[in-house]
Known about the structure:
The complex is a heterodimer. Chain A is α+β, with helices and mostly antiparallel strands. Helix content of chain A is about 25%, strand content about 25%. Chain A is built from 20 helices and 39 strands. The longest helix of chain A has 16 residues, at about 765-780. Chain A starts with a strand and ends with a strand. By secondary structure, chain B is of the alpha+beta class. Helices cover about 40% and strands about 20% of the residues of chain B. Chain B is built from eleven helices and ten strands. In chain B, the strands form two sheets. Chain B has a seven-stranded mixed beta sheet, with helices on both faces. In chain B, strands 2-4-3 form a three-stranded antiparallel beta sheet. In chain B, helix 1 packs antiparallel against helix 2 (about 20-35) and helix 2 runs antiparallel to helix 4. Chain B starts with a helix and ends in a 5-residue tail after the last helix. Classes of the chains: A alpha+beta, B alpha+beta. The interface between A and B is large, with 92 and 91 residues.
Amino acid sequence: MKVLLSWLQEFAPFPSDDPVALGDVMSDLGMAVESIDRIGEGLDGVVTAKVLGLRKHPDADKIQLVDVDLGDGEALQICCGATNLSVGDIVPLATLGTTMPDGMEIARRKMRGEWSNGMLCSGRELALGEDHAGIYILDTQLALGVPILEVLGITPDVLFDLEINPNRPDAMSVAGVARDLAARLDLPFAIPSPNVDEVDGDGSGVPTVEIIDPDLCGLFHLRVIRNIKVEPSPKWIADRLSALGMRPINNVVDASNYVMLELGQPTHTYDLAKVHDGALRVRWARDGEVITTLDGIDRTLTGGRDGVIANDSDIAVGIAGVMGGASTEISDETTTVLLECAWWQPMAIARSSKFLGLRSEASARFERGVDPALLGMATQRLVQLLAPSGAQLVRGAAIVRGNLPEAVPVRVRTARVNQLLGTAITTDQIVALLAPIGFVCSPGDNDDELSVTIPSFRPDSTTETDVIEEIARHFGYSKIIGRAPVSAHTGSLTPIQRDRRIIRQILVGLGVHEAMPLPFLAPGDLARCGLPAEAVTVTNPLAAEESVLRTSLRPGLLRAIAYNESHRTEGASLFEIGKAFGVPTQGTLLPDEREHLALALAGRDAAAAAKVWAVLAQTLGLEAITIDQTAPPAGLHATRSGTLLAGGAVVGEIGEIDPGVLHAVGVRERVAWLQLDLGAVLTAPHGEHRYRPISRYPSSDLDLAFEVDESVSAATIEAVVRSSAGPFLVKVVLFDVFRGQPVPDGRRSLAYRLRLQAPDRTLTDADIGGVQQAVVDALAARGAALRS
Amino acid sequence: MIEDISKIATAAPGRIAAAISLEELRVVEADLLGKKGELTALKKGMGALDPEGRKVAGSALNETRESLEVAIGDRRAMFEGAERSAAVASERLDLTELVDIPERGSLHLVTQTWDRLVDVFIGMGFTVAEGPEVETDWYNFEALNIPAAHPARGMWDTLYVDLGDPETTLLRTHTSPVQIRVMTDGEPPIYAVMPGRVYRRDTADASHMPVFHQIEGLVVDRNISFADLAGTLEAFTSAYFGGAIHSRLRPSYFPFTEPSAEYDINCVFCEGNGCRTCSQTGWLELGGCGMVHPTVLTNVGLDPEEWSGFAFGFGLDRLALMRHGVDDIREMYTGDVRFLEQFPS
Lengths: 788, 345
């Protein structure tokens, strides 16, 4: 909502001297000032000039040399990029030394070797509009050298652009903003009464209106205005509309818009000649009913959702609160206008305008709720604005009521006000704060209570809390002294949140960067990554590439690897902790949403992922999770991958991305891969690191190398070592792997170092020999032979 | 005998000093003190002396042996020291001449900011709550006092998903549904923050992403007031941004809070003096807040006459960008290592 200071001043004597301070007050009242424009500022040095001649610039195609006369008969050379000039045109010239509205200073300067002694201005450069296509051409009759402010009749003014919240229907008008502002500044506020004389009609009778559906329309005023002469509006009206962002059209439309901006009440004008008998009816649309709206588009309406105004043949001539129909549109030939001024059910207009995709200044006001008490005044004001062109208000009106909500007085308890605000406001203060914004207080059931009558322009306000917000607003949020409550709790992270931090720090320490790819995928992304295509889809994606919710973090990280490769960053190491969205499980509505950890190491092989996993598993106490390579997960390298199993349940996958998948997603390097269902793993018991006493007796190392079939995993061998070595074993490490002669094909040598120690004595050779025998025997049963 | 001893003692220092390496010193040591050395040989001859002579000779022998051992030890220490010095001299390393420095990874800027924010609130006695990213209409809108067709729904451009009836399931547009879950699943007093990922139907540009992050706070207790809200946000502001930065609240509108407010802070770039970032206002808009709407409390089964509360929320990504002077939010989400590695912690 934009407001002009001069317009505000028609309702209360606001000071002109400090617009910024005034803006601060508006912001403090919840009408946030987004910008302040000082109209007319910076145009002091701009004067009229006449184009004497146009010449080609000798050294630039896009610049002309323009000779202008400022009234002294001298030709002044200006360089100009615009091409809409003709000899004889009167144009605005910014003379040397002028500071333009945008802050640019005009100085004498050379452009490609030619002097320019000022600047010819476009509409935008003069801050008179958005037009920047050419120079702003003025009336050829104008005198030369005259200040442009005088020529254009620009009165310096201040334009505030305000952000109005949805709960402030009253602030959707200049008068409403003025009321709120005047209340805070303790200035008298009044809406001048537009007294308009009424005349008799030409005998065609008083118009009639019938509200068929009272749940659509709460109040409907219908008046006739005669002696209409459609013509351009007076300049002051056109200027104000332009300033507030509405294009002037003609005096009738402009008057309607002016009233809407000033009072917040939209009106609609029909050409009476095109409405049979001036009789209208208001009802819900019928399903499939078609109307051609003012913009010439055929609109198909939906029953019960859209409302219509129909003529006495029951043919729709307008969509209620949204847009009028083309069939009754006023034209230059219109002489008598039928004026509609209504209160529509806000929710109805909100639905209708949303689904029809027709949002307008009028619908925005109807859907917030207009002031039903203002309908009569709005019609009078409109006629008052048209009166100078001869328009007359015809005596007699059709005023029909539908369901109009009754304002119920609201009980406001002073104690409640102070409890909710943390203040010590008295009941008298409350009365004084509310009165200027139209909330009338009368004594309540007891001393500490008020009965507050809500003004008709504040339909948003219906409860005690609503009123408390108004009290707070006018008391001033900044005057409420802050105090921080003492929490009833000890602040802390949950165990999972702590584990997440540990995981992240470990991965960062291992050289991996955390990435956050978007969770949206394109159709086909999952299949390209070797994953099942079934996934939850987005109903209204902005683009098809963002229409699928990821079921795995794999596509996102691979895309990031590809992105890095294409920018010459090979070997990118990335991880992500994020949600994967499985299709809902049986009987649930929402997706099977799980938090995953995924890791992709470009240029590294599966062992790299396994090593990272080993560090994570040790730190978090997840050693019970095993790697099972018997059935490699889909899309992973068939001989270098496996699933992570926790007690038989799959909780992740590890290894390398399948070369075919890499090819499909455009990644050139190998990619080591790890994905873990973090939620499943971290919610299960884990990480209990128990103390093991450290022996004070010397330890002995036992190195054993075994020849093992390739089909038996090292993890299997190590498990057998651990279980068979007995109580002296404190540590076992795989320290060498060897393939080749003399080890036969299909087998490899695995060398382990066992550290043995007793808690109570030094081990003897016999002790150590016993351990060796036990391990060798146990491994022999698994087909592993001790190498000598 | 005594003469022989003193002859050895007199000659020995010269012989020790003449040894110019550890090997030569070892030979001298063996010659003088070894099993077949000169002093040992003399000792063996002592048996021929009378008791008095033996006593005198024995004491002289011991004295000489001890002094020679010290002299040899000193000489050896000198050689060993020289040997270590030589080794040290030959082992010079240029500590700036490094190949294959182990690479350290980095936490995402959003994570870094998330952790910092969460840590401040933990210090203020808040717990940290989370919830699903795909939500029902109830948790994201209805329970928060935003019924269907409410004009306020236009405040969020919602991405819906194809589950259940049309427009009943969606990607949460804010972290507020977690507030409903916290209030529904637990009981007051509640002091919790809810960081999380949220979604809007927004085209990506320098300052918008369809996916971004928020943190919200919720306090529900007896006698919680707007003053508590203002005080909590002021305490947070100084703790997070530093003591020179203060907060202010301006009236605003949200369906789920009343009274509602915009939460501004002094511009962190100019500390309130006015600069380009804050459009010369000295203030930055950070987020929204207010007293939990009575309807919201009723929706989760709490009596608004008994319990009151406040809630606040703001975007997390912008704080991350601001701290490091990043001017395009999209940079955070490409996974470009050249970007990520700039912010190791």
